[in-house]
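Fold this sequence, please.
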Amino acid sequence: MWKQMGDEFKVGVFTLTALFTLGYMLLVLNPNMLKDSIRLQYYTVLKDAGGIIQKTHVKTNGVTIGKVRAVELDVNTTRIIVEIDGNIKLPVGSKIEVRTRGLLGDVYLEIIRADDTGEFIKEGGLIPKSEDQMDMQGMMALLGNIGKDVKKITGTMATVLGGEKGEQSFANIIDNIEALSLDLRKTTSSIRGAIGDDPQGIKNIVMNLNKSLANFKQFSGNLNSVLDDANKERLNRIIASFDDSMAEVKGATKNIRLISDKIEKGEGTIGKLVNDDAAIVEIEATLKDLREALSPATKMVITIDTHAEARSDKTGQTYLNVMMRMRPDRFYLIGMTDVTEGVRDTRTESIETDPGTTERPASTKIRERTTERKAMRFNLQLAKSWYFVTARLGLFESTGGGAVDFKFFHERLRFSLEAFDFKSYDNEWRRVARLKAYMQVLFLDHIYLMAGVDDITRKKSQITYLPQKGPVPFGGLGLAFNDQDLKALMGAASLAR
């Protein structure tokens, strides 16, 4: 039944399928597009909003509940407007933090909800920033402040102890210590003399010494009661573990010393890198060449274009092209298309209609069967742009050719002329080459309509297998999107989950 349908019906089915697929991508992968879900907006104020952009995820307890709607810069702060699921209640006292996935991960906002007291933050209200947060930026700032303080202390010490005045101050400190020790020696001698002349003083000293010994005895008794057999066993294990750890530390220190000696001597790869300036120069040159080689790839923009054409000769053709734009003024095009004019195979066979008898001969008739096959053709082109004109050279439907495009109104209107499949010596139905002229009008940044004339130089010959003699008008519908659209679509799909 499908083979009996016309080509126009098939093109229509393909177009409806493409539109259904597009609707599925927009509505199923991003159900919130038409879903009337409740979204509540809140805001927070941050001193540093580094890494936060529109559509940054907002989470609570590790679950995504919304996204950042807008980032507004105030005088000394940044106002972040977030949009979260209306079913999520935020009790009064909830805080918000800026977090990252790992040291170099993406930034997201985490809402730390307070205990449910029955009072909730109203829509459009403020979610204050958590004061206890210590993110990576805060930690680096704290380390920077500590470094500044240490530098200030060392600078002060260098100022105080440096120069002749510092040396003199240091000498005075040494003299004061010597004088203090001399005074302490004199005081000890005086006490010894006083004790020799006063027996009561000796008695007091002996009494104080006895009290000290009693206290020490009591302390040792308490220590002995604490160090029972179980505690002694634990202490022995601790000491044994400490011995093992010290042995491992000694071994590691020895290995580190051996490695540092080899590096200092220039042995091994690291030693050559540290001691050989030529190796450093080669590495820097290699990294520079690598950056230059990868720079176009990092700036590459990929655009996927697909469209279907319906022709007046009751045929149809579908194209799928991928354009890789390395620079703003040039791109590469790789694609494929099905063949509009298929290969026709004709087979002639005889059919016996009457077996005949001995008195009359058998009768037969001739029947011809024609089979039409379709194949794929490929596009491989290099394009260069000047202002509003773009020239393309390469393969057009697996044949050599060229094209020129004229673009207007920010590439929303395009006129194109293609010439390929040039005439061969035995070509009986085309004068010069296959010329194709058409116009494209872009709508909604992704969908475009096209109309034109194909095979302008086709002759009006009497070849029976040609669907139509002369030029073939056509119209079509296309869809184009780039890698940024794919990223946005994937982000919307992840948010929907």
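Residues 164-226 form one domain. Helices lie at 7-27, 136-161, 163-197, 199-226, 229-265, 268-275, 277-298, 483-496.
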